[in-house]
Amino acid sequence: GAVVSQHPSWVICKSGTSVKIECRSLDFQATTMFWYRQFPKQSLMLMATSNEGSKATYEQGVEKDKFLINHASLTLSTLTVTSAHPEDSSFYICSSETQYFGPGTRLLVL
Amino acid sequence: DAKTTQPPSMDCAEGRAANLPCNHSTISGNEYVYWYRQIHSQGPQYIIHGLKNNETNEMASLIITEDRKSSTLILPHATLRDTAVYYCIVRVRGDYGQNFVFGPGTRLSVLP
C-alpha cells in the first residue's frame, strides 16, 4: 500500500532555533497532505493542510508565521518550526490525502 | 469536533476477541467508518473501513449496524502487540480535501 515517511524521527534543539520536518509520499503523488500535532496523552489535532503549488491553510490558533509549510512537489511537504520554544515540544505527524499516516517526528525543544 | 464516541478504555485477555464499540449517530449517507490504531510513539496505523456492509481483512473485522449509527471493530485473537489506542473516524471517502478528525479513542490493554 501507499507509504508516507517522515524525517527526522526525532529531534532535540535549543530554544530559538528552527527545525524542519519532511514528509514524503513514497509511491504516489499527494496533492494534499495534512499536518497534525499530538501532545502527551492527547489525541491528534490538525494544524494545517498543505496543498501542492499553493499556500497552506491553517487551523484556528495555529500561527502560520511560526509553522511554515512548503509543498513544492507532489511527493514532499515540509513543516518548519521557526524560533522553537519548549511549548512547541510535541509529536508531529503528517498524512497523505488518502488514508496513510507518517510515523511521526518527536520534537523536544530545550 | 469528532463525530464519534468511544469508551475511553477497555481490557482484553490475550487470545480472546477484542470488541471495540463506536457510536456515530449523526453519520451521513456518504460517510465511511474508518478505524485506526496508534501504538505508543508511532503514527496512526490504518486498520479497516466500511460503508454499510460488514468488512473483514487480515487484521480485523468491522461490523456496522443496519442503521449505521454504530459499529464494532473486532480483533479476533488479541495479542499483547494489539495494545494501543484505537480511533473510530467517519469521513467521506474520496474527499481528498478533508482531513481526519480524531477523538480521544479507546485505549485497549491486552492482558497476559
Distinctive features:
heterodimer, A: 110 residues, mainly beta, six-stranded mixed sheet, B: mainly beta, four-stranded antiparallel sheet
Can you tell me about this structure?
The complex is a heterodimer of chains A (110) and B (112). By secondary structure, chain A is mostly beta strands. Chain A contains no helices and ten strands. In chain A, a hairpin with a 5-residue loop joins strand 5 and strand 6. The N and C termini of chain A lie far apart (37 Å). By secondary structure, chain B is mainly β. Helices cover 0% and strands 46% of the residues of chain B. Chain B contains no helices and nine strands. In chain B, the strands form two sheets. Chain B has a five-stranded mixed beta sheet, with no helix packed on it. Classes of the chains: A mainly beta (110), B mainly beta (112). The interface between A and B is medium-sized, with 25 and 19 residues.
Unreliable stretches covering 5 or more consecutive residues of chain B = none
Instruction: Summarize the helix and strand pattern of chain B as letters.
Output: EEEEEEEEE
The strand order across the widest sheet of chain A is: 2-10-9-4-5-6
Secondary structure category of chain A:
mainly beta
Total number of helices of chain B:
0
Q: Looking at the chains present, what oligomeric state does this protein adopt?
A: heterodimer
What does this entry show, briefly?
The complex is a heterodimer of chains A (110) and B (112). Chain A is mainly β.
List the helices and strands and how they pair.
The complex is a heterodimer of chains A (about 110) and B (about 110).
Chain A: E1 4-7, E2 10-13, E3 19-25, E4 32-38, E5 45-51, E6 57-58, E7 67-73, E8 76-81, E9 90-96, E10 105-109
Parallel strand pairs in A: 2-10
Antiparallel strand pairs in A: 1-3, 3-8, 4-5, 4-9, 5-6, 7-8, 9-10
Chain B: E1 9-13, E2 18-23, E3 31-38, E4 45-50, E5 55-56, E6 61-64, E7 70-75, E8 84-92, E9 106-111
Parallel strand pairs in B: 1-9
Antiparallel strand pairs in B: 2-7, 3-4, 3-8, 5-6, 6-7, 8-9
